[in-house]
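Cross-posted from the bioinformatics board.
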Amino acid sequence: GQSLEQPSEVTAVEGAIVQINCTYQTSGFYGLSWYQQHDGGAPTFLSYNALDGLEETGRFSSFLSRSDSYGYLLLQELQMKDSASYFCAVDTGRRALTFGSGTRLQVQP
Amino acid sequence: GAVVSQHPSWVICKSGTSVKIECRSLDFQATTMFWYRQFPKQSLMLMATSNEGSKATYEQGVEKDKFLINHASLTLSTLTVTSAHPEDSSFYICSATPSGTSYEQYFGPGTRLTVT
């Protein structure tokens, strides 16, 4: 079966740095994506890693280690608007995504 | 960026009736669209893969006769929830990937279905 594990909740203060980890066990692996979802809204794409290493996009960075079946999303200079749920998702080769359970990030002033 | 729309954004229906949800890619063509379901405070679960011009591929445990999917054109896929029951109440979200890109999926705004 497929499983992706993430912490259920993370709390941090404005301006801080937070790391959300994701470990996965899937039958196939083409890449690890990260999505942000605000309450009542649709998921929006943040980043994608197909190869080992760090990808940086503005305040957000994502890391992948395929040998460890592990990745993380790093959010820097946290802002209140970053309060949302963050999902890691694996493309197992069918282009459809298998999502992790989601991490609810609460940014406090 | 690519835009995906869904209609309606929310719907309330009575138990036993059918509801149709539309998913459109507004500025790109999508030979494949995906339908997900999300219960409150839970993750997105893939229901089915919608293929233009052919039958949808359903995930294990999803009743194909209950959740009818039609991919009539390269920009439109519909999900019909037949004989809806209260346990079908959920947030239904579609997504699509523009041709030529391999990984970034664009999600519709979702449809909140409440069955009374």
